[in-house]
Amino acid sequence: MAQKVLVETLDDIDGTPAARTIPFALDGVTYEIDLSEVNAAALRDELARYISAGRRTGGRKVRVATGQPATTASDRERNQQIRAWANANGYEVSERGRLASEVIAAFEQAEIAEAEEPVKAARKRAPRKKVAVAKK
């Protein structure tokens, strides 16, 4: 027998379907709240005055409206390619974590150079054959 379980996230303020979970912190305590688009906008409007007067102390800006994970499968595959290239070319990179921008830039430059090689090779002329000349 098969079962299908449907999980519905509800807005913590009014019980309507929630669009997202919003994390926030106050006095060293981190909270999460599930909100609809309307209530999420209202929360941002309420906090805007305090955010503009405050100082940012860390964290990353989170993509709000994409609905996609921060890292996709193609991102992971590309990172694996970069790590393999970096290890083969003398760069020290860890197996996990963020890649240094210098390593990514070097990888991209190498990709560009590699893509241009066939063009350069096609432009070169074939070497001329030496013809033996008989002396009289």
Automatic annotation (TrEMBL):
All copies of domain Lsr2 DNA-binding, residue ranges: 74-110
Domain Lsr2 dimerization: 1-58
MF terms in GO: acyltransferase activity; DNA binding
Region annotation (Disordered) ranges: 58-77
Keywords, in A-Z order: DNA-binding
Protein name (record): Lsr2 family protein
Organism: Amycolatopsis balhimycina DSM 5908
